[in-house]
Amino acid sequence: MKVLVVSGGVISGLGKGITTSSLGRLLKARGIPVTIVKIDPYLNVDAGTMNPYQHGEVFVLDDGTEADLDLGNYERFLGQSLSGGHNLTTGKIYRSVIDKERRGDYLGNTVQIIPHVTGEIKRTIRELAEANGAEVILVEVGGTVGDIESMPFLEALRELSYEVGEGHMAFVHTTLVPVVGPVGEAKTKPTQHSVRELRAIGIRPNVIIARGPAPLSPDIKAKISLFCDVPPEAVISVPDQATIYEVPLVLEAQGVGPLLARLLRLPDREPEYAAWKEFLATYRRADRPIEIAVVGKYTELRDAYLSHAEAFHHCQGHLGVEVGMQWYDAEDLTRNPALLGRIARSDGLLVPGGFGARGVEGKVQAIELARREQIPFLGVCYGFQMAAVELARNVLGLAEANTTEVAPATPEPVVCLLEEQKTLPGLGGTMRLGAQKVLLTPDSALARLYGKTELWERHRHRYEINPKYLERFAAAGLSVAGMSVDGRVEAFELAGHPFFFGVQYHPEFLSRPESPHPLYLGLVRAAVARKEVAPRAAPAPAVA
Ligand code: GLN
Question: pTM here?
Fold first, then answer.
C-alpha cells in the first residue's frame, strides 16, 4: 500500500480538496489505481446534520452517505463513484472505538487516543485501500495543522509512515503564500510556521504546494525550499485559476507527476489527458454568454450549491457556452419584487433543493414567472416540490396548496411526508437517501433528453408528491415523466413549455467534467435557444 497525505497550513479554504483531487488525477492519468479518503476532524458522524452555512453543500453518495463536499470534487476529478467509507470523521472513529470498548474487545486495557484511536484510524485507512484495490490511497486531512481536532489523525499518519516504510508514503503540505503591502510582496513566513508545526509532530513534508493569487517567483520558491527543508523542485506554485479543472495541468507543468512517482516508487508512465484537455480547451474559448438565475436560500455562500455550479461549468466545457450564474436569495424576492423583473431577463432558472419554510414563497414566485414567461426551468428536489405547489395554486386554483413541511395542516397537501418517514426517530441519516432506480415514461421529453428510460439518481428527501393530485396535474399539462420502482413520483414535465422539468432526485451530484449531466446540458441548450430567439436589450445586472 502506498499513501499520499495532503495536509493544510495557515488557513482553511485553500483549495486542499481540489489539490488532493488533482494529485489523484495525476496518478490516475498514469494508469495507477487510486482512491481517496477525506478526514473531517469534527465530532459529527457525518455531514448530514450540518448547516450548509458552516461546511457548504452536503454531498450525497450512491450508498446514501451524506458527505463533505470534497467527496464531490474527488468524484468529479477521478470520474469514480465513492462510498461512505471515504469520509472519515472523528465521530465515526470514536463511535467504533467506544462500541469496541463496550463489547469488551480491548480485554481490560485502558482505552487511549494512542494507540487505540490512532490504531482505529490506521486500520480504517488500510482496509479502505485494500477494499478498493487501490495502489495509492490519498488521505486529505481536513482542517489546519495545529488544530487540536486533527492531532490524532496526524499522529496516526506519522505512525503509518513508519510502518509502511520509505518510498511508500509521502506528505504534501498545502499552504498560503499571501501577497501583501503596496508593492505586492509574497510572504513565506506563514508557510514556515505551519511547516514547523508539522515537523513538531514528527512529519516532514516532501512537497509544499503554495496557494496564492499569483505564481511564486524563483527566489520565493528558493526561500521556502531553504526554510522548510524541501528540495526546490518540490515547492510547487498553484496560483488561482479561472477554473479548478486547470489545476492538474498546473501541477503537471511543474513536474509533480514524476516527483510523486519518485517519492512513491511508482512507474512514471506518459500521462493521458486527451478528454480532459479537450474539455479545458472548449471551456477556455467559450463565448455566447448566457445567464442562469439560481433562486435558493443559502446564496451568500456559493459552496452551499457547489455541485450545481460545477454542473454548469461542465456544460461550458462541452457546449462552448459561457454559463454565468446569478444568485438570488429567495426571501429577497418577496421583499423586492423588482428582482423578479431581473429574473425575467435571465435565460434560464434553477431552483435547487432546500429545507424548511424560509424563502419558499419566493421560490414559488420565481417558478410561476418561469412557467408564464417560458423561461427554461429546472427544479431540483425542493425546487421540484415547489413547482408542484406553484401549479396547484395558480393553475389548479388550489390557493392553499402547500407542502406539509411548511404548512402541516394545509387542506391541499400536494407534497407530503413519505409514509415510512412518519415513524422515524431523529434527523441524522434518516431521509430517503442515495441512488435509487428511476423509470422514465418512454415517450416523455425527459426520456428523450437522457436517451434512455432507466436511470440511477441520488436522493435526499423526506417529502414527496402526493399521488392524489396526479390526475389533476396531468389535466393541467404537468405530467409524470419518471417514477421510482415503488411508485413514487420522481420527475415532472410541463407540456407546451420549451423546457420545464422538476426532479425529486439530485442530478447535480452525478455531473462530471468528462460527462456533464443531461438535465444541465438540456437547460443550458434551452437557455441558448431562448437567448438567440429573443435577444434581450441588456444582460440582467449582477446581484450582489
Ligand atoms: N425539504 C424537502 C424534503 O425533505 C426537499 C429536500 C431537498 O431539497 N434536498 O423532501
Answer: 0.91
